[in-house]
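Data follows
____________
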Amino acid sequence: MTKPDLRPCLQVIKPYQPGKPVEEVERELGLTNVIKMASNENPLGPSSLAVKAMQRHAGKMHFYPDGNCFYLKKALAEKLKISPESLVFGNGSDEILSFLSLAYVHSEEETLMVAPSFSEYIFASQLMGGVPRRIPLVGDNFDYDLEAVLNEVNEKTRIVFICSPNNPTGTIVLKKQLDHFVNSLPEKVLLVLDHAYLEYATDPNHPSGLDYIEKGYPVIALRTFSKIYGLAGLRIGYGITTPEIAGDLNRVREPFNVNAMAQAAALAALEDDEHLENSRRIVNEGRRQINEGLAEMGLKPVPDQANFFFADIKTDSRKAFQALLEKGVIVRTGDIFDLPTYIRVTYGTAEQNERFLLALKDVLAEVR
């Protein structure tokens, strides 16, 4: 059979490389009790209210889901004090990135993003033949330089992606910086604020996309139930934007894109404030534990506002990754972000953090 010619954009798209699943590592290496600290998942799991909601809905899975997410949209709009018409839901907030490309990016048009940052911005940019352009973060703490980003905006620019807290660095953009940036962007440029880790940020200077959306700026803030809500396996995220932009994105959205179980779990999870507070607490405690442990090894992670840390371990992260894997600890290597001596690690329970620190200490003694 003759292979069909691929569109030029498909020839440059690189498939996403997820973190290794626990089951795969246990199967391949013959290990048990493997811990995964690679994908920024909530170590506490989902809310018990969400689990009970899924159990109640399990017998209804022969019905198609509500394509409009009516009850979830209503509850979320009330919680955020916004219009329901300002919300769009996706099979994870990743899917909304695809909506943005389908709706707004044409061949040879450009998108801007910082580097390192979430790789799916590149995928979304290239999906319709767009051209992603990356502007480096600056300094040892990977700070945002929004003036540098502004300097790259031109007549071809359609979307700017800002991830805050940023994946993989955990760093944030400050409200004063972003206020100036939003006011300086041309009206034809859409600003995407990826707030997947927003609920973990404690810095009072961290901005909220709602401030700009309420004033009618062309901004969409992406949030997710995958991280602090612990529903990563259900794939549900949402965007908050102007009703006009939400309308555009719903035009290109597939019908029934958010499954019924995810909607039921997310609706219940919104009511569990105790689970959110416990999730924040375990991250704050884990950050202190990890920082102290790394300091004893002469390492200093990038200051973060997320549920993970990014650190230069001064050696080949691929070798360290493999050695940690053999000790039953899964982390994320920095080479995928063009930083081959860095690792990104999710804060876990106190026991998981301690196990990681002991394993890393042994590994660094072996590979350095």
